[in-house]
Amino acid sequence: MKKILAAGAIALAMMFASVSPGMAAETATADKSSEVTFSPEVLKHAENATEFAPAGDESRAGFVPYATFQVTSKQPNTRMTNVLTSCRNPGGTCTLSKTVTQTASITAGGGISFSVLNANLGGGYSNAVALGVSCTSPKLSFGQVYNAYPMGTFVMFKYNGVAGTAFLPTGVDCRVAAG
Predict the structure, then answer these.
(1) Which is higher by pLDDT, 20 or 93?
(2) What is the DSSP letter of 67?
(3) Of the chain's two ends, which shows fewer C-beta atoms within 10 Å, N or C?
(4) CB atoms closer than 10 angstroms to residue 165
(5) Where are the alpha helices (DSSP H) in 51-162?
(6) CA distances (Å), 141 to each of 7, 92, 94, 95, in order?
(7) What is the rounded CA–CA span in Å between residue 156 and residue 164?
(8) What is the tens place of the pLDDT at every residue in 48-78?
(9) What's the pLDDT at 21?
C-alpha cells in the first residue's frame, strides 16, 4: 500500500514539475486583419474609464445597470400651504411687498438629486428661486387676512422604483383667507 501511495505521489510531483513558470507557452499567431487598434485619444480616456459589469452580472451586490425615472403626476400652478407673508386691514386694503427665497423640496425618491430630477423634467426649474411678492388686497372684512403663498409645479415620480414627490417653486399666489 505504501508503494502505491509513494508511486502516486512521485507521479504527481513529476506532473507538476513539468509545468514550470519558466517554460515557454504555446502561442497562436493572430490574424492581423482582426487586430483592433485604438487612437492615442481613446487610450488616454481608457485610463480613466470605469469597468462595466458584463451582461448577466445583475446579481452582484450594488449593481445598477441604469437609473430609471418615471413621472406619475405633474401638477403645474400648485399653491403650497406655507404663508410667505401676510397682512390684514379690516375695512380697507393692504399691500404685500417682500422678496423671499423659496427652495425646491424633494421627498423620498431613492436619493435623487435636484439636478437629476430637473434634467429628467426638461431642465426648466431652479433649485432656489427669489420670489418677489407684490400684491394689493381687495377690501378686507373683519377676520380676513391677505396671504402670499408659493406657487410651483408639484411632481410625483419614481426613481429606480422608489416613489417620491417634489415641489419646484415658480411664483407667488396672493389670496384672502379667514384669519
Answers:
(1) 93
(2) -
(3) N
(4) 15
(5) 114-120
(6) 111, 8, 12, 15
(7) 6
(8) 444 444 455 444 455 556 788 999 999 999 9
(9) 45
Length of the chain: 179
Which amino acid is present at 31? D
Task: Report the C-alpha gap between 133 and 101 in whole angstroms.
Answer: 11
The torsion angle over the Cα atoms of residues 151, 153, 154 and 159, rounded to 10 degrees, is: -150
The average pLDDT across 28-55 equals: 47
Dihedrals phi, psi of 74, to nearest 5 degrees: -135, 115
Cell numbers describing residue 84: 410667505
Is 107 in contact with 159 (CB distance < 8 Å)? no
User: What would the grid cell of residue 41 be?
Assistant: 485619444
Does residue 23 sit in helix, strand or coil?
coil
The CA distance from 88 to 144, in Å, is 7
The one-letter amino acid code at 79 reads R
Q: What is the CA 79 to chain-centroid distance, rounded?
A: 25
